[in-house]
## 1
Amino acid sequence: MPLTFNLKNTFFYLLLLFAFNINANNLGNCDFSTGKYLDELSSLDSINSIEININNYRKWTTNTLEAFISRNSSITSEYKKRFLGTVSVNYDFGKCIHDAKIRLHGDWKDHINFEEGGLLNQSVDVSLLNGSIANIIKFKLLLPATRRYENEIILTSMLRLLDFLSPRTSLVNVIINGVDSQMLFQEKTAKELLESMNRREGPLFEGDERFLFNNYRIQTSDTSHLDLENISLAKITNDNWASSNDATSVMALDSFSILQEAYMKYGRDFEDNYVLDWKILSLDNKKFIDKWAAYEILLFSTNSFHALRPHNRKFYFNALENGVEPIYFDGNPRDINTQWLRYIPSFHFYPYLESRHFSELLEQIRLITPKKLTKSTEGNNFKLTLKESEIILEKTIEKIIRLHEMHKKFLLNLENDKLDSFEKISPLENFQNNVRSSIPNSYIVKVQNGHMNHDEKKLLASICRIDNKGCDEQLLDFSMVGKLLERKKFLNIDYDSPLFIEPPKITRDPIISKSFLDGLINIEMTATAGAFFSEEKGELYINLNNINDWIIIRESNLENTSIILESNLVNAEKNNIGSRMNSFGVTGCLTFYNARFKATKIKANGQFSICEDVINIVGSDGIINNLEILNASADGLDVDFSNIEITKLSVFNAKNDCSDFSKGIYKIESAIFKNCGDKGVSVGEQSTFNASLIEIINSNVGISSKDSSKTYIDSLNAEDSQKCAEAFQKKQEFFGAILKISSLNCINQLYFDKNSILEIL
């Protein structure tokens, strides 16, 4: 018989018998247990000060001085070498010390300053090697004057409230090599930013500045830093992610082609302006056109249009939504608390801008109360008063209304303000001509359409001289795609002149769409999958007919609906899963995306499929009465970014985790998990998880709470589990975890690390 622990006062005795300390290299060195301060550590408000010390202080100082006195007007890449150092963060409740890589940051020399007494101070770019600050690993510390810090904090907060990807920003006390000052803390564009705003990790891009700001050898004191803007396209910034497997490589190439096309059109039609074609960026997706319209109207109304210069822009490709999203960066916002408009956009460059875009943005901003805006600004050194927030919101609304009136006048005079209608050469041809005239010895890389070999993990590519003097055929390994899209390097081949990449076109399998109940239920799926809805029974039947089949139910109301997923695959060959997601961003056989549940029932059989998850629920909320999953080749249930209650949950026969809950709020009444290859229940990434009764039979781990999660179980029965329960930190960007169990029925060990709390109450 398994032992039952229901201990109120003998917790430490239990730990002595059954607990082992898990050590990890990514925890960071804190003089307190991070699990005790999860809420405080996730907020920039808790930071008292940050101290940075460069290991090789003398070499760092020499490098900074040389950058400052160099003849170039900008800080060129040769001065942005990384130095090792330590970053100490002081809180009211203790201190954390992190190892880090640090380099100079900034295009212009205003990022280097001599403080009073001749002390040197500078903007820096920091990457922590262990631990995190407010769940952030990569960030910048900026001299406040370079970013108009009050406006930057306000604008980034407002953008996040409106669900635009925007970095967390705060004013903090900083000491760098003994120099004490206040600096602007701003997170960098990385997966932590995406996940903090409920997006999955995916392709990240920015304008490619390798030919700008004195970074290219043909530039002289007589040339402008933007002379080569018409051949400066985009590059990927998370190249390691892009090269991780064939699915991410294809997704990166696919989304990269969208941006290349948009930048080439800019070089032909909009040079020296603030325009990128929304239709290209959105893949003609109305939802994304609306998002781009709202974003750009807001930046113009807050005098932050500096962020719209193509070389300043950053992007995220949202695979589940199938479009490119903007990421705010370096808007240089001015006078956002006044009615002054610094720049009026040329509306004839915005053919997809509609009157309703202004009205819809106004509705969204009016939902932001002064209290909400004030609360959203993080940090101890700068806080808005309610009155200041009220004025900022009022003036922003006034300026949007003024821009709207100007747009109305433009529409009235549209016939007299048309763009030239003469036929133009294609953006690609125009780009090639510009490259020939600027850098005639360069090369164009062409990734061949449709020539993809997933088994050998190869793509066929050509490297052609821009002067049409021949091409070399090469095989591009998927693992090299990131390096190609970021550094513009091809394998180990060294070319004397730069490589440019022609927009690749990757052929993907077709998908089909279906709608039921007058659009209440919307489905996308592979062409070989099947879907049928019985209005009489309120049942949706879904069939997997191919091992690569998948289905998404998106933006759907599933109240009083039963969903039955069946696998028609009999003795199909199960290949090893090569990627967590496919090139469409899908991990589940059946994915619920932005769905609403109420009295919903789901039954799924993943027999012989090769999906990462049989059921994946993303960005959804509501109550599921009954959820049953059988036969998963990896995870049974995976829930992300959601607020879900499940009355009865059962998962049987999963090769990996039976259930996985991330970044959300979850409540389970009763659950049974049987034959789980790894964990019965995995709770992670800042989730709050409550369960009344959980029964687990045959698993590696009964329940796992990790990475800043809080898990509370009334009763846990774990039979034939090698570990009853564990609480620990796995990922660098998070902290310890909390796991509290009122009644535990299990004979094996409990595991926890130094930063986590595990209690049997």
## 2
Amino acid sequence: MLENIKSPADLKKLSVEELPALCEEIRRKLILTVSENGGHLASNLGVVELTVAMHYVFDCPEDSFVWDVGHQCYTHKMLTGRYDRIGTIRKTGGLSGFPRRYESPCDAFGAGHSSTSISAALGIAKAKQLRGDQSHTLAIIGDGSFTGGLAFEGMNNAGRFKGNFMVVLNDNKMSISKNVGAFSKYLNNMRISPWYANAKSGLERFLTKVPVVGYPIVKLLTRFKNRIRQNVYKNNLFADFGFLYYGPVDGHDIEDIINVFRIAKKVDKPVLIHAVTLKGKGYQFAEDDPKSFHGIGKFDIDTGEPLSHSDSYSDCFGETMIDLAKKHENLCAITAAMTVGTGLSEFANQYKDRFFDVGIAEEHAVTFGSGLASQGIIPVFAVYSSFLQRAYDQLIHDAAVQNLHLVLGVDRAGVVGEDGETHQGLFDVSILNSIPGTTIYSPCYFEELKASLVKAVEEDKGLTAVRYPRGGEPYRPLDFEESDINYNIYGNRNASRLIVTYGRLFAEACKAKEMLQKVGIEVCILKLNRIKPIDNEAVKFAANFRKIQFFEEGMRSGGVAEIFESELMKQKFVGTYRITAIEDMFIPHSKDTVALHALHLDAEGMYGIMKK
């Protein structure tokens, strides 16, 4: 059936009785595709019935679907004319793993980070209302994303809206890791026993089939039920926000969900549908371990085992944190729902009292950490580079202005790859460079990461960041040795040409140096490890060269290369200075090796530039 669905209109040609078989076909395709391409599996498996039901009842793109984060939109893409390209997802030039407005009019709003859907959907709904458009707008958000403050800001304003607006709460008790906090407990209390849910849905299914009077009776019973619920549960959060609440409903009962959507569609006010789902539904390995199958690389379908694994920077960070915790009883670790991804799982097991998962709330994490620091605790906040962007104000206002010692472990720094524009770690350097008093390290190798983190915790003051890329350790020349925590010099110091770089690009520069030697060109490499403040001795050393080329895996604007150039001018530098960095653009999804090559930031690109 799936290959014959070229648009949501084709889906509506199927009977409700055929939809469960379609859902199973979709699941098989999801498992096969992600096993070959990598991607988000458990989250997509959990929303198959929910997605099919939405497209069965509503008319996309006239009705707008706004996905929160968007990592669960693979089924949506299959049903909206992209099934024939689903095998290209996350590949260079292929479909994005997230909603992208340039891909399809059915992708109403782009996403990649959490908690944005309600605010964006409300804006879309209001814009429709202003132009007299009576179509529906749906925000599909997970219970994990609801822990982000922006979701509540959206709810606060949406409750006043008069029109066709709906929030679909996909409640699977998970974000990436298991959900935490008061909101998670609140939803636990709202979930009702299966026998009641089945009896209610059975009655509603029966009544909706009764001609003429069926729907009015269901609406009357719904009002009666909600009145009783409001009297019994006086703290119904969603009702207090101004939403008509339906649920909880079994998110895998396709007929039940369709009926709920049909009923809710007739309501001319904000509606919240609370659907309870199972993350990883239909693939036992993902059901048993939804954390590992949230975002996963290629894997063996029969065993569920990843096809490749090696030690990563995240692992190194986590191990170093445990070593530091043994020495410093006042050291704490903070994560924003990324325990596994940031390498802190073992830390969480060994130091439960000193580990804080605050949910998907990066702003809160920084301010919470600043509060800890004000009382003599040493907080280390492990966060992906692209998610740190969300806490820019807190970094300035709550940490840096007060000169509080907050340490950031900035994971996934630089080009990340297949997740695309919203997940590239290209802005943290420019952001942190702009904050006075901040110290930033960008090591290349595991030993440097350990040394930088130890120094950040034990010696540095104020806001301090240690940034490192995704994946494993890169190429390392046999004759390279770290001599200084701030910078290193590698190669022929008498050469006329100098490469300046930092982070993992040093490995690419070393390979380029070897390629250049083969054609008779000698270069020296200045490897910066502490990129803010830049060591003045490193600048003095660079000023002696005639040609300097800076390679930077980050935005040129506000980056290290521009600052280094300014410092060179203070040294009366008279040679030529060139910068290869990421200009005024976003980097689309592809393998990181492909992206670095296109940006001339790999060994071949460096070789070509330095050879001129």
